[in-house]
Structures are given as C-alpha cells and as structure tokens.
Specification:
By secondary structure, the protein is α+β, with helices and mostly antiparallel strands. The chain has two helices and four strands; from the N terminus they run E-E-H-H-E-E. It has one domain.
Length: about 60
C-alpha cells in the first residue's frame, strides 16, 4: 500500500502526490509540522492527513501547527 499527505482547511485542500509508506508519511509530518516547509506554512490552523491509496478515508489526521 502507498500513502499520501493531504492538507486542508475551511477553504482549500491540497495533496502532495506522494507515494510513500505509512512510516514515511508519519515521519514526514513529525519532521515538518510546526515549520514553514511546503504546505505546512499555508495550512497553519488547518489539518494535515495521511490517506491510503486503494482505501477510502483518512488514516491519520492532526492540526497543522
């Protein structure tokens, strides 16, 4: 299975187009949340999620700091 990172707030949603493992996706969020890297800057106060290709719904979600 492959996973992607999705950012969302009340007005917009963007996916990164990644195809990574679940562990890589979790590490990406842990490393960059709270910084101005990529979409983290644009979505402060919104949410960053991990989605799984081949399954509907979100696997993990946390607030962008």
């Amino acid at each position: 299975m492959t996973y992607d990172i999705v950012f969302s707030n009340d007005t917009a949603m963007n996916d990164c187009g990644f195809k990574m493992t679940l562990e890589e996706a979790k590490d990406y969020i842990a490393t960059w949340n709270g910084t101005n890297h990529g979409y983290f800057e644009d979505y402060k106060g919104g949410f960053v999620c991990i989605i799984c290709y081949g399954q509907d719904g979100f696997i993990y979600e946390e607030e962008v700091r």
